[in-house]
Amino acid sequence: MEELETVELETGANPQAAVIWLHGLGADAHDFEPVVPMLDLGPGRPVRYVFPNAPQRPVTINGGRVMRAWYDIVSMDRAAQEDAVGIGASAAAVENLIVREMSRGIDSRRIVVAGFSQGGAIALFTGLRHAAPLAGVLALSTYLPLADLVVSEASSANAGLPIFMAHGNADDVVPINFARNSRKKLAQMGYDLRWTEYSMPHAVIPDEIEDIRTFLMQVLD
Description:
Blueprint: E1 6-10, E2 17-22, E3 47-52, E4 56-59, E5 65-68, H1 84-103, E6 111-116, H2 118-129, E7 136-140, H3 147-153, E8 162-168, H4 176-188, E9 192-198, H5 206-219
Parallel strand pairs: 2-3, 2-6, 6-7, 7-8, 8-9
Antiparallel strand pairs: 1-3, 4-5
């Protein structure tokens, strides 16, 4: 996969932390830009937010229409075959973004990988397998893809990684049971999991944004 196009926002000069935030299926890098002002961590915590664009690809579940997607989805049946090649390619591209932030002077322990829906799946898949220790993962309205592979390839450097995982109990796109089952798997693997359910559909709401801000303040302290 070619290097991902990105949109970047910095909350202050000389950022000492980075959040790499992946959009959901069919959205783009601008999707979560409006959230940044609501995540103010204070003048002493300048953060670089990196919003990458997923590549354009046909998505089977959407009738083969071409759209921005981190991987193909054949069916929302969790027993259906997952797009291991697409997931792996997107994870490798996000790994490159992590390395790029490190080359710009950000310690890996001050990098959070975040994502919504399909982007959250890639955030989990990438973060749990990354060789260098990270600050945390934000997994919003999502699930753990290729769970057995993640178990076998989990990085010892990120054992106990803080994970903020949240889901709407009225989500009609990614069923909440997908997230609950992933939560159970991640807890069994020993991660520092913070789980919250909200009264919302497949979305992000102000209460959740405030909880995300609290999480970021904790892991980027």
